[in-house]
Amino acid sequence: MKIRRALISVHDKTGVVDLAKALSGFGVEIISTGGTARLLRDSGVAVRDVAEVTGFPELMDGRVKTLHPAIHGGILARRDAPEHLAALERHGIPPIDLVVVSLYPFEQTIARADTTRAEAIEQIDVGGPTMIRAAAKNHASVAVLTDASQYAAVLDELKASGGALGEATRARLAREAFQRTARYDAVIAEFFSEGAAEAPSDASPRNSSASAKPALESGNFPARVVLDAERVWSLKYGENPHQAAAFYRMVGAAPSGLAGMKQLHGPELGYNNLLDFSAALGLLLEFEEPAAVVIKHTNPCGAALGDSVAAALAKAKASDPVSIYGGIVGVNRVLDMAVVRELTGIFVEILFAPGVHRDALEELERTKKKCRVFEVPCDRRALPTGVVEYRSVLGGLLAQSHDAADLDPTALKVVTRRGPTEAERRALRFAWRVGKHAKSNAIVLTSTDQVVGVGAGQMNRVDAARLAVMRAREVGLATEGSVCASDAFFPFRDGLEVVAKAGATAVIQPGGSVRDEDVIAAADDHGMAMVFTGIRHFRH
Question: N or C: where does the chain have the smaller number of CB atoms within 10 Å of the terminal CB?
Answer without folding.
Answer: C
